[in-house]
Design goal:
Blueprint (H helix, E strand, L loop, with lengths): L1 E18 L3 E18 L3 E5 L6 H9 L6 E6 L8 H5 L2 E5 L11 H11 L4 H14 L15 H13 L5 E5 L7 H18 L2 E5 L3 H7 L2 E6 L2 E7 L2 H5 L3 E8 L12 E6 L2 E7 L5 H10 L2 E7 L3 H10 L12
Parallel strand pairs: 3-7, 3-8, 5-6, 6-7
Antiparallel strand pairs: 1-2, 1-4, 8-9, 10-12, 10-13, 11-12
Bound molecules: adenosine-5'-triphosphate (ATP).
């Protein structure tokens, strides 16, 4: 059964803007504009899009913080806006830019409060806390007040807090924002293990595409409140009309190589970079070059996902052509 179901969900905000000294202009912002998707139990899905695309608004509707203006939305069969308290025991939420921990209390006191708030059975709480402390490296931090934690430490503390009550689904809004490389990698490893061992469903919003590449097989792209792509991460390359790069090392410096199968995009001494469509095989190109030029070595580079996504955002709705949409 699908754990998360959205059918034509909309969220419209009424905004008032000052216009002149006394006049205020009323305007409507369609933050989410008719989105439909389903997420089965156990999946890790990336939810990406440019600033203001509607990602946080979607997550807030999925937690029940915001009520949709239209459409149908269910999480574990529950209507989040109507039964927010009942849903709270089934979901975990981490907002990277805010903490759910008590600022002045040591980390462990925040966890004790959650133990009581969520009425978590004692044995369950102890087991979950022990697991998070071990896997997220929290032992040294439990007695430290939250305000004294670094961003990376606090984020790990927040992720543990979201998991103490065994949620079926975890929403992560920018969980690696501002973290250093080591902390990012710890958080990603933890999420991978969580999904593999406990089957927790994860919906992940991020601007860091490495998060997506390392965690998600499926990705959804939203722009201007609309779903532009929903499918395999690999499929994005086709939608983005992206290119692979053949890097060739020649025996000596030569003018840009001539072939109809690719175009030379960079020359540096005896090394040349040739771009060709990601959807075609490199074999004929390699064969042609090997027959015509003195090659020493070669390698093929996959398209850079950052470039693919940037193209897609820039293309607006047109960028969605060919995308698999649910
Ligand atoms: N409470 C609100 N009142 C009015 N407009 C809002 C409100 N919350 C969000 N918006 C608007 O809705 C749109 C979508 O915002 P949202 O925060 O969902 O985007 P986002 O994809 O999460 O962006 P970011 O990547 O910058 O966090 C934006 O135009 C934003 O200004």
């Amino acid at each position: 059964m699908d754990l998360i179901e959205l059918d034509n969900v909309e969220k419209v905000f009424d905004v008032r803007r000052k216009k002149g000294l006394l006049r205020r202009e009323k305007r409507q912002v369609r933050a989410v504009d008719g989105i439909s998707f389903t997420i089965p139990r156990g999946e890790v899905v990336g939810y990406i899009g440019p600033n203001g695309a509607g990602k946080s608004t979607t997550i807030k509707m999925l937690t029940g913080i915001l009520t949709p203006s239209g459409g149908r939305l269910r999480v574990a069969g529950i209507d989040p806006a109507r039964e927010r308290t009942r849903l709270a025991s089934r979901i975990g939420v981490v907002f990277g830019q805010r903490t759910t921990l008590w600022w002045d209390l040591p980390l462990k006191d925040s966890y004790r409060l959650m133990h009581r708030m969520y009425r978590i059975p004692d044995a369950r709480f102890a087991a979950n806390l022990a697991r998070c402390v071990e896997l997220l490296d929290l032992a040294e931090l439990l007695d430290v007040p939250v305000r004294q934690l670094s961003l990376g430490q606090r984020m790990r503390g927040d992720i543990a807090a979201a998991l103490l009550h065994d949620p079926e689904v975890l929403y992560l809004d920018e969980p690696t924002i501002g973290l250093d490389v080591v902390s990012k990698s710890k958080v990603r490893q933890f999420l991978r293990d969580l999904n593999a061992e406990l089957g927790t469903t994860v919906l992940l919003t991020t601007h860091d595409l490495t998060d997506i590449e390392q965690l998600c097989k499926r990705v959804m792209v939203i722009d201007h409140g609309r779903l532009m792509y929903d499918g395999a991460l690999a499929g994005l390359h086709e939608v983005g009309e992206s290119e692979r790069t053949l890097v060739v090392d020649l025996e000596r410096e030569l003018p840009p190589l001539v072939t109809r199968l690719a175009r030379v995009v960079k020359v540096e001494g005896p090394r040349q970079w040739l771009a060709f469509p990601a959807s075609v095989s490199a074999a004929p190109l390699v064969a042609e070059l090997a027959a015509a030029y003195p090659l020493l070595d070669l390698s093929v580079r996959e398209p850079d996902i950052e470039v693919v996504i940037a193209k897609m955002y820039a293309g607006g709705a047109d960028g969605a052509r060919g995308a698999r949409l649910t």
